[in-house]
Amino acid sequence: MAESNKVALITGGSKGIGYGIAEVLISEGILVAITSRSQESADQAAASLNKIKEGYAIGIESDVRNLQSQEAAVEQVISKWGRLDYFIANAGVGHFAPIQELTAEQWNETIDINLTGVFFSAKASLAALTESKGYFINIASLAGTNFFPNGTAYNASKFGLVGFSQAMMMDVRSAGIKVTTIMPGSVATEFNNHHPSEKDAWKIQPEDIGQIVSDLIKLPARTLPSKIEVRPSIPK
């Protein structure tokens, strides 16, 4: 059993920011379930994470676009470890094209994963988080306040996510649940088919976001940073 007896579920945790968060939490004695649309990817990532602390990670196949799938993921975590303390809604996708070229399929996938998927994550986890007086953390983006060309779908999803998250925070804080929106800028991940290399050393690293999550959950119950913008110190 974990040193803290605390349990986290991270969507999209098989790589990138989600994996970086998992690394930090496990190193601090928190049990972590990571989800992916691929059970193979989830299992491979969990096996790698278990090298940090054996038995502290499990992989779950789940699709945030499906409410029942999210409910099943939460149920699996509770069946395994008996509780859920932290839900990190990290799964995301990006399609970038001028509005003239953006397809309906690309629009729908972006909104379904980046926005509706977080709604489903919240609906699936709120009962467990109410019981544990837990924490719901959304990984949004600076694209939730800064619009740019080719960003109609992505900007819409992240602007919506920031608004959703802040309103959710006000809905659930009376139940003892904290909600924080983390809005990173450039992060060295595989997002949008990028392949991180040493050329990305100037960017925020996934484990840096993990450290922010770790710091948030250590704050006194009376204090809530509801929205955090994160940028590279010296952008390239």
TrEMBL record:
Q: What would be one Pfam family of this protein? A: adh_short
Which domain of life, per UniProt?
A: Bacteria
Q: Would you indicate the residue range of the signal peptide?
A: none
InterPro entries xref list: KR_dom, NAD(P)-bd_dom_sf, Sc_DH/Rdtase_CS, SDR, SDR_fam
- NCBIfam families named in the record: PRK07326.1 (NF005594)
Q: Which PANTHER family does the UniProt entry name for this protein?
A: 3-OXOACYL-(ACYL-CARRIER-PROTEIN) REDUCTASE, 3-OXOACYL-[ACYL-CARRIER-PROTEIN] REDUCTASE FABG
Q: Which family does it belong to?
A: Belongs to the short-chain dehydrogenases/reductases (SDR) family.
Q: What is this protein called?
A: SDR family oxidoreductase
